[in-house]
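Structure representation:
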Amino acid sequence: MKKEKILITGGSGFVGTNFVDKLPKDIYEIFSLDIQEPKISFNNVNYLNADIRSSRLGELIKKIDPEIILHLAAQSSVAISSKDPVLDNDVNLNGSLNLYLNSANSNVEQFISFSTGGAIYGEELGKKFKESDTTKPLSPYGISKLNFENYLNYFSAIKKFYCKTTILRPSNIYGPWQNPYGEAGVVSIFAEKMLKNENVSIFGNGDEYRDYIYVDDVVDFVFKIINSKEIGTFNVSSGKITKTIEIFDYISTIIGYKKPPIFLEKREGDIFGIEIDNSKSRSIGWSPNYNLKGGLESTVNFLKGQ
């Protein structure tokens, strides 16, 4: 049986590594494209060192000739986007547009793009955001992600290219392979510092809240989209909110960490809270399998083994 070809941009990243790990190698011929080396090399995966902004990207896509593209490559830090909005726009909009236009001009049948649920809606405390709600991003990161969404919706509307397009708006994803040394990913950052008995900093007063979803649940949703060929925009979230101080307390209990947190001024672009509705995603037969406690324990156990 001929294998279906799938190209994953950002395949060496956090979500990309988890997705490549769980892709059935007997069904898909897998191509992982990234500017970084893979965190772990899996058998039967073709690793490509390339930038989505490259002028040679079209030539590369034509050579691979994938049926499916999963677009994960991004500048993913809100803090960095505020410091360097030109870089953020260059990667998240120009690079993404370069990828899409080159893929749409090839034989790609399905284009799945990761956007953001946490940074695209803005902030309205007490509101649970649906995909149909007005978007009001409050950071360059959210703006660049929304702008690419607008391009995808435009091309879908005018039907210039034949390519089933799906936009995913995930909430705060956590789990194995998340970078514990970056500026984003509070679960892995907290856990790594606690395991080393180092001080943990919280930007704000700790009452800030987010929707946290375990990476395996996100991967399961991607599989649902690939198999169902659903198009449109979907929030991918747990549907529940958790305060930052609660994340701190949960992980402290799991690890046995005794130090109090250090509270710092909030960073530019950070919002106080976001609550995301996942009913549309549930309506196609998906639901999260991991509760927060189980996901946090799995993440801590993974970091212990590194």
